[in-house]
Amino acid sequence: MIFGGVALISLAIILNARAYKQLNEGGSEKLSSKGLFLSVISGCLMGLFYKYVAASMATNFINPEVGKLSPYTALVLFSVGVLLSSFLFNTWQMKKPFSGKAVSFGDYFQGAFQDHVMGILGGGIWFIGMALSILASEKAGPAVSYGLGQGATVVAAVWGIFIWKEFAKAKSSTKSMLNWMLLLYIVGLALLIGAK
User: DSSP string covering 104-117, please?
Assistant: First the structure.
Protein backbone atom coordinates (compact mmCIF):
# COMPACT_ATOMS: atom_id res chain seq x y z
CA MET A 1 0.00 0.00 0.00
CA ILE A 2 2.87 2.35 0.79
CA PHE A 3 4.52 1.68 -2.58
CA GLY A 4 1.21 2.14 -4.40
CA GLY A 5 0.47 5.37 -2.55
CA VAL A 6 3.90 6.83 -3.26
CA ALA A 7 3.66 5.74 -6.91
CA LEU A 8 0.26 7.40 -7.37
CA ILE A 9 1.39 10.60 -5.65
CA SER A 10 4.54 10.65 -7.81
CA LEU A 11 2.40 10.22 -10.92
CA ALA A 12 0.13 13.05 -9.72
CA ILE A 13 3.18 15.31 -9.33
CA ILE A 14 4.36 14.45 -12.85
CA LEU A 15 0.89 15.20 -14.27
CA ASN A 16 0.83 18.51 -12.43
CA ALA A 17 4.24 19.47 -13.85
CA ARG A 18 3.11 18.52 -17.37
CA ALA A 19 -0.10 20.53 -17.00
CA TYR A 20 1.88 23.57 -15.91
CA LYS A 21 4.29 23.11 -18.82
CA GLN A 22 1.37 22.87 -21.27
CA LEU A 23 -0.11 26.05 -19.79
CA ASN A 24 3.11 27.94 -20.53
CA GLU A 25 3.66 26.55 -24.04
CA GLY A 26 3.94 29.43 -26.46
CA GLY A 27 4.17 31.90 -23.58
CA SER A 28 6.99 34.34 -22.94
CA GLU A 29 7.88 32.79 -19.59
CA LYS A 30 10.57 30.12 -19.92
CA LEU A 31 10.41 27.19 -17.51
CA SER A 32 13.74 26.46 -15.86
CA SER A 33 15.22 23.21 -14.62
CA LYS A 34 16.39 25.24 -11.61
CA GLY A 35 12.77 25.71 -10.54
CA LEU A 36 12.08 21.99 -10.85
CA PHE A 37 15.21 21.14 -8.86
CA LEU A 38 14.25 23.62 -6.11
CA SER A 39 10.73 22.17 -5.96
CA VAL A 40 12.02 18.62 -5.55
CA ILE A 41 14.54 19.62 -2.85
CA SER A 42 11.92 21.73 -1.03
CA GLY A 43 9.40 18.90 -1.13
CA CYS A 44 11.93 16.47 0.34
CA LEU A 45 12.81 18.90 3.13
CA MET A 46 9.13 19.56 3.87
CA GLY A 47 8.58 15.82 4.16
CA LEU A 48 11.19 15.52 6.90
CA PHE A 49 10.00 17.95 9.56
CA TYR A 50 6.94 16.08 10.86
CA LYS A 51 8.96 12.99 11.76
CA TYR A 52 11.16 15.02 14.10
CA VAL A 53 8.26 16.93 15.63
CA ALA A 54 6.41 13.65 16.28
CA ALA A 55 9.56 11.99 17.71
CA SER A 56 10.02 14.84 20.19
CA MET A 57 6.49 14.48 21.58
CA ALA A 58 5.04 12.18 24.19
CA THR A 59 2.85 9.40 22.84
CA ASN A 60 0.51 9.63 25.83
CA PHE A 61 -0.66 13.21 26.31
CA ILE A 62 -2.25 12.53 29.74
CA ASN A 63 0.84 10.90 31.31
CA PRO A 64 3.73 12.09 29.12
CA GLU A 65 7.05 10.25 29.15
CA VAL A 66 9.93 12.00 30.88
CA GLY A 67 11.96 14.12 28.46
CA LYS A 68 9.21 14.29 25.85
CA LEU A 69 7.28 17.41 24.87
CA SER A 70 3.57 17.96 25.23
CA PRO A 71 1.82 18.83 21.95
CA TYR A 72 1.50 22.47 22.99
CA THR A 73 5.17 22.76 23.96
CA ALA A 74 6.15 21.15 20.66
CA LEU A 75 4.00 23.67 18.76
CA VAL A 76 5.51 26.62 20.63
CA LEU A 77 9.08 25.41 20.00
CA PHE A 78 8.29 24.64 16.36
CA SER A 79 6.78 28.12 15.92
CA VAL A 80 9.80 29.80 17.50
CA GLY A 81 12.06 27.78 15.17
CA VAL A 82 10.03 28.83 12.12
CA LEU A 83 10.09 32.48 13.21
CA LEU A 84 13.83 32.60 13.87
CA SER A 85 14.82 30.64 10.76
CA SER A 86 12.59 32.88 8.63
CA PHE A 87 14.85 35.84 9.36
CA LEU A 88 17.87 33.86 8.18
CA PHE A 89 16.37 32.21 5.09
CA ASN A 90 14.20 35.15 3.98
CA THR A 91 17.15 37.54 4.24
CA TRP A 92 19.31 35.17 2.21
CA GLN A 93 16.63 34.74 -0.48
CA MET A 94 15.99 38.49 -0.62
CA LYS A 95 19.70 39.14 -1.25
CA LYS A 96 20.25 36.10 -3.53
CA PRO A 97 16.86 35.35 -5.15
CA PHE A 98 16.38 32.26 -7.30
CA SER A 99 14.96 34.48 -10.02
CA GLY A 100 14.59 38.21 -10.53
CA LYS A 101 16.50 40.99 -8.85
CA ALA A 102 17.43 41.29 -5.20
CA VAL A 103 15.00 43.11 -2.91
CA SER A 104 15.43 45.00 0.36
CA PHE A 105 13.51 44.95 3.62
CA GLY A 106 12.02 48.30 2.59
CA ASP A 107 10.35 46.54 -0.35
CA TYR A 108 8.49 44.34 2.12
CA PHE A 109 6.65 47.37 3.49
CA GLN A 110 5.58 48.49 0.01
CA GLY A 111 2.88 45.84 -0.08
CA ALA A 112 -0.73 46.72 0.61
CA PHE A 113 -2.07 46.20 4.13
CA GLN A 114 -4.48 43.52 2.91
CA ASP A 115 -1.54 41.57 1.41
CA HIS A 116 0.11 41.44 4.84
CA VAL A 117 -3.18 40.47 6.50
CA MET A 118 -3.65 37.65 3.99
CA GLY A 119 -0.12 36.40 4.72
CA ILE A 120 -0.78 36.44 8.47
CA LEU A 121 -4.15 34.76 7.96
CA GLY A 122 -2.53 32.05 5.81
CA GLY A 123 0.09 31.42 8.50
CA GLY A 124 -2.62 31.25 11.17
CA ILE A 125 -4.65 28.76 9.17
CA TRP A 126 -1.56 26.61 8.59
CA PHE A 127 -0.72 26.72 12.30
CA ILE A 128 -4.24 25.68 13.31
CA GLY A 129 -4.07 22.77 10.87
CA MET A 130 -0.67 21.73 12.25
CA ALA A 131 -1.96 21.99 15.83
CA LEU A 132 -5.00 19.83 15.06
CA SER A 133 -2.79 17.31 13.24
CA ILE A 134 -0.46 17.04 16.22
CA LEU A 135 -3.32 16.77 18.70
CA ALA A 136 -4.95 14.03 16.60
CA SER A 137 -1.71 12.06 16.45
CA GLU A 138 -2.24 10.61 19.95
CA LYS A 139 -5.33 8.69 18.83
CA ALA A 140 -4.75 8.32 15.09
CA GLY A 141 -0.98 7.86 15.18
CA PRO A 142 1.61 10.11 13.51
CA ALA A 143 1.40 8.45 10.07
CA VAL A 144 -2.37 8.81 9.73
CA SER A 145 -2.30 12.31 11.21
CA TYR A 146 0.42 13.44 8.80
CA GLY A 147 -1.33 11.84 5.84
CA LEU A 148 -4.57 13.63 6.65
CA GLY A 149 -2.60 16.86 7.06
CA GLN A 150 -1.37 16.48 3.49
CA GLY A 151 -4.96 17.07 2.47
CA ALA A 152 -3.89 20.72 2.63
CA THR A 153 -2.13 20.14 -0.69
CA VAL A 154 -5.42 18.99 -2.20
CA VAL A 155 -7.18 22.07 -0.83
CA ALA A 156 -4.45 24.30 -2.29
CA ALA A 157 -4.72 22.61 -5.68
CA VAL A 158 -8.53 22.84 -5.72
CA TRP A 159 -8.32 26.48 -4.66
CA GLY A 160 -5.83 27.33 -7.41
CA ILE A 161 -7.63 25.40 -10.14
CA PHE A 162 -11.27 26.19 -9.38
CA ILE A 163 -11.26 29.41 -7.32
CA TRP A 164 -8.28 31.40 -8.67
CA LYS A 165 -8.75 29.75 -12.08
CA GLU A 166 -4.99 29.53 -12.69
CA PHE A 167 -5.65 27.16 -15.60
CA ALA A 168 -8.69 28.97 -17.06
CA LYS A 169 -6.89 29.55 -20.39
CA ALA A 170 -5.57 25.99 -20.58
CA LYS A 171 -6.63 23.46 -23.19
CA SER A 172 -9.28 20.89 -22.25
CA SER A 173 -6.62 18.16 -22.26
CA THR A 174 -4.67 20.12 -19.62
CA LYS A 175 -7.77 20.48 -17.47
CA SER A 176 -8.41 16.75 -17.79
CA MET A 177 -4.82 16.11 -16.71
CA LEU A 178 -5.41 18.26 -13.60
CA ASN A 179 -8.52 16.27 -12.71
CA TRP A 180 -6.52 13.05 -12.98
CA MET A 181 -3.77 14.62 -10.88
CA LEU A 182 -6.23 15.42 -8.08
CA LEU A 183 -7.76 11.94 -8.20
CA LEU A 184 -4.39 10.17 -8.16
CA TYR A 185 -3.13 12.35 -5.31
CA ILE A 186 -6.21 11.70 -3.18
CA VAL A 187 -6.12 7.94 -3.82
CA GLY A 188 -2.37 7.88 -3.14
CA LEU A 189 -2.87 9.68 0.17
CA ALA A 190 -5.67 7.26 1.09
CA LEU A 191 -3.35 4.32 0.43
CA LEU A 192 -0.61 5.85 2.60
CA ILE A 193 -3.07 6.52 5.40
CA GLY A 194 -4.51 3.03 5.08
CA ALA A 195 -1.01 1.49 5.25
CA LYS A 196 -0.50 3.14 8.65
Answer: -HHHHTTS-HHHHH
Instruction: Indicate the burial class of 138 (C-beta count within 10 angstroms; 0-12, 13-18, 19 or more).
Output: middle
Q: Please answer whether residues 164 and 5 qualify as being in contact, where contact means their C-beta atoms are separated by less than 8 angstroms.
A: no
**Taking a C-beta distance cutoff of 8 angstroms, is the pair 62, 50 a contact?**
no
Collapsed DSSP state (helix, strand, coil) of residue 70: coil
Using alpha carbons, list the distances in angstroms from residue 8 to 73, 87, 132: 35, 36, 26
Q: For residue 61, give the nearest of 70, 53, 50, 72 by alpha carbon.
A: 70
Residue type for position 179:
N
Tell me how crowded residue 153 is: count the other CB atoms within 10 A of its CB.
15
Q: Quick one: pLDDT band at residue 193, thresholds 50, 70, 90?
A: confident
Sorted by where each begins, the domain ranges of the chain are 2-24+33-195
Please, which pLDDT band fits residue 27 given cuts at 50, 70 and 90?
low
CA angle 163, 161, 26 (to 5 degrees): 125
Assess contact for 17 and 165: CB atoms under 8 A: no
Closest to 140 (Cα-Cα) out of 53, 47, 49, 54: 54
Percent of the chain exceeding pLDDT 70 equals: 96
Cβ neighbours of residue 64 closer than 8 Å, sequence gap 6 or more: 58, 70
